Amino acid sequence: MDELKLITASNLIKLRTDSGMTQAELGSRLNYSDKTVSKWERAESVPDAFVLKQLAGIFGVSVDYLLCEHDEWERTPKTEHGKKTSFSTGVVTLVSVMGIWTLAVFMFVIFWILGSLQWIIFAAAVPVTVITLLVFNCIWRQGRNNVWIVAALVLSIFLLIYLTLLKFNLWQLFLVLIPAEIIVFLSFRIRRS
Fold first, then answer.
1. Which CATH superfamily is domain 2-67 in?
2. What pLDDT is recorded for position 134?
3. Which of 61, 120, 130, 185 could form a disulfide with 65 if both were Cys (CB 3.0 to 4.6 A apart)?
4. What is the secondary structure of the chain as a DSSP string?
5. What pTM was estimated for this model as a whole?
6. What is the pLDDT of residue 184?
7. What are the extents of the domains in the chain?
């Protein structure tokens, strides 16, 4: 059993470091503390079968790979997090955001030609942009700093509602924004005990 702990610990350390994750980041993805991950990596315990399956999914390997010894020359399978892409994620994100704003300008021009200026189109483009950033952040950065993006999304939705109903001067709406933002920040602090 001790040998299995050492092999699993060694594989976990290699996969985690190769993918550029900290113990805290890995623990967060699994809803465990960094202390638990540290315990696994010090070979004090082995993750249960459910966690091993989650780890295999995160690193793009089989559960068998996590539990078996590997030679030094053996090439580690590409991990989900450390996967090299053949395109620049920043450029793809920028092109997507520019596409959203180009569509917003196009719709604004169409409404302008039809004789109805609709400035609210630009306010609607903000939450769409934030949702796009949230999706790309989940895909390429494994959700790091999602709390800030979700907080911006909540704010942009409140602003959109306020601007849509501007003639009613619903400034009280922003009183609801405060607890809504607190809920967002607290929800990202929920951890498995």
1. lambda repressor-like DNA-binding domains (1.10.260.40)
2. 92
3. 61
4. -HHHHHHHHHHHHHHHHHTT--HHHHHHHHT--HHHHHHHHTTS----HHHHHHHHHHHT--HHHHHS---TTSPPPPPTTT---SS-HHHHHHHHHHHHHHHHHHHHHHHHHTT---THHHHHHHHHHHHHHHHHHHHHSTTTTHHHHHHHHHHHHHHHHHHHTGGG--TTHHHHHHHHHHHHHHHTT----
5. 0.55
6. 92
7. 2-67, 89-187
